[in-house]
Amino acid sequence: MLFVITFVTSIPALLLYDPVLNHPGYILGSGADTRVLLGAFLELILIIANIGTAVVLFPILKRQNETLALGFVTARVVESTFIAVGILSLLAVVTLRQDLAGTAGSDTAALTTVGRSLVAIKDWTFLLGPGFIVGIGNGLLLGYLMYRSALVPQRMAMLGLIGGPLICASGIAVLFGAFDAGSAPQAIATIPEFAWELSLGLYLTFKGFKPSSPILDETRHTRVNEGSLTRAVSAQ
Fold this sequence. Notes:
Layout: H1 2-16, H2 18-22, H3 33-99, H4 108-149, H5 154-175, H6 184-206, H7 218-235
Helix pairs in contact: 1-3, 1-6, 3-4, 4-5, 5-6
């Protein structure tokens, strides 16, 4: 359900941000501050859900590979940090519009420049967080862990292994100017990752983990740990 919440919050938030992201004179106009604030609220919930997906899965995924499971948690935290910086930049635009725009003696040209600079920060945080780190965390790490553990159908997990590198490659391409952010090539590159995260959320919500997964066998897991401990004691 936490995976589903990330979709329910992130997509509407992006739509709500449209006035401030795509209108250069927003900081000088009447503004649509309520929309921006609602978008920021949704992204705060998104951050909680993002980190929640990793924290909730960690106790299970660490049975497959604790290092990679911890890497997934870390990637989610880094992604959420980028999102938080983007939220702060847009809230700063709202504050400047409310406090300074239209007041006597305010420098409209400077305000516009500052406003567009803060929006540019939001754009870059989106590229580096959801547009790059997601490919490493949700794509490669989570995809590999789900594939190896067989907690979900392996064909579905392959979407993550395919989508992760595509997200990273498209993010790098935008970074170096090969094509624009939000262009058709980048949108196409996000499709496998989008399908992976959505299908994973829906599958786990309505079906749960596959009972046949070997890491769900608590007895086997306990025996493996006890065997490792016995060998370690014997070696000493």
